[in-house]
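> forwarded from #structure-qc
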């Protein structure tokens, strides 16, 4: 790729990013991320960008065949459409350009748009990562690690010292003792790792619209938190009167018809943490989404007890998102706020509709927990 093409390609990418950033609130609120979603990339539709193209001038724009053409002149056929042929429309079509943006770039745009602070991991981390770091130059090594520039530099120095170098005919031919090779050492560094535990009420009052809100918000939560950590694991819990751990597909598409006991989800989340995620080694986040209904006041008291004595001491943050439903009472968020007025680790958000997702993300992520 020539320098000019590279420059144009970079400029085009900047234009594309600008288009995405200008529409990011719409993408966040309505989940308008379509196309392929791979491990590191997501496809986003943006309005068609007009690329530079040649345009004929007014002179020498002759018609078809012999002589000058005129607007509306039929080419090689009847002026009237044949029987059964569709008529031409007079409205412009919709043109979308699908572009691939890495999740890292998307996270950067999200952070800028919502003015999110960087997450401050708790502790220094005790999971050890080993990696090779090139740290010097040696006189021996494999050809695959030969340092070309340093090799020619050594050859040049040798030729200058021995009087072999001719400025009029600067031919530099390295010999074996000129060869230089990259050397490395293995370094060990602690890494901060994170796990997200999603919990969602799937009782009869949580419909498809509410689940779509949860799915969209979870995508953006994942994107931001993943950009802050070396590794991220995600666990999913659904509950009605009982709780169970499921995969992602089941999490977003299951609907039950029973009642709701929120404490069952909190117990299971705590069991998962105790079994798999030592607090000294993991940054742990929990997001619970429901419509605010719980079976009884007694179960709500049990939820408060589990949060205060079990979950909160282990978590970086506990985020409760109450998704509005015509069938839900909306009481649970009031109970949390009443019992945890001074608890900084607990963050609540009311999500009335898809338009509220933008604000909700700011509330959940804006403290940098």
């Amino acid at each position: 790729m020539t320098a000019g093409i590279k420059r144009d390609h970079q400029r085009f990418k900047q234009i594309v990013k600008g288009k995405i950033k200008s529409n990011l609130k719409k993408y966040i609120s309505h989940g308008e991320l379509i196309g392929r979603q791979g491990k590191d990339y997501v496809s986003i539709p943006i309005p068609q960008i007009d690329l530079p193209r040649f345009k004929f001038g007014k002179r020498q724009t002759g018609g078809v065949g012999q002589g000058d053409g005129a607007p509306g002149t039929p080419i090689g056929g009847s002026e009237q459409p044949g029987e059964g042929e569709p008529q031409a429309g007079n409205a412009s079509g919709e043109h979308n350009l699908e572009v691939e943006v890495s999740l890292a770039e998307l996270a950067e745009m999200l952070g800028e748009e919502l003015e999110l602070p960087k997450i401050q991991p708790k502790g220094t981390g005790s999971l050890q990562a080993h990696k090779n770091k090139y740290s010097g130059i040696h006189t021996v090594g494999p050809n695959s690690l030969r340092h070309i520039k340093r090799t020619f530099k050594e050859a040049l120095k040798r030729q200058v010292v021995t009087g072999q170098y001719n400025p009029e005919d600067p031919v530099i031919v390295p010999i074996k003792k000129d060869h230089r090779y990259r050397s490395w050492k293995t370094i060990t560094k602690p890494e901060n790792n994170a796990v997200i535990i999603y919990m969602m009420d799937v009782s009869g009052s949580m419909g498809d619209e509410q689940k779509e809100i949860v799915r969209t918000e979870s995508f953006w939560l994942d994107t931001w938190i993943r950009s802050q950590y070396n590794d991220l694991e995600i666990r999913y819990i659904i509950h009605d009167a009982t709780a169970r751990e499921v995969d992602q597909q089941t999490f977003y598409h299951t609907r039950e018809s029973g009642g709701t006991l929120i404490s069952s989800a909190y117990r299971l989340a705590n069991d998962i943490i105790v079994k798999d995620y030592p607090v000294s080694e993991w940054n742990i986040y929990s997001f619970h989404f429901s419509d605010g209904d719980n079976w009884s006041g007694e179960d709500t008291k049990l939820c408060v007890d589990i949060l205060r004595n079990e979950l909160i001491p282990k978590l970086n943050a506990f985020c409760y998102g109450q998704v509005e439903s015509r069938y839900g009472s909306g009481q649970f968020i009031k109970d949390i706020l009443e019992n945890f007025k001074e608890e900084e680790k607990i963050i609540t958000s009311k999500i009335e509709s898809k338009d509220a997702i933008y604000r909700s993300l700011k509330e959940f992520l804006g403290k940098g927990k």
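QC bot note: The first helix runs from residue 3 to 22. The domain at 192-365 is CATH 3.40.50.410 (Rossmann fold).
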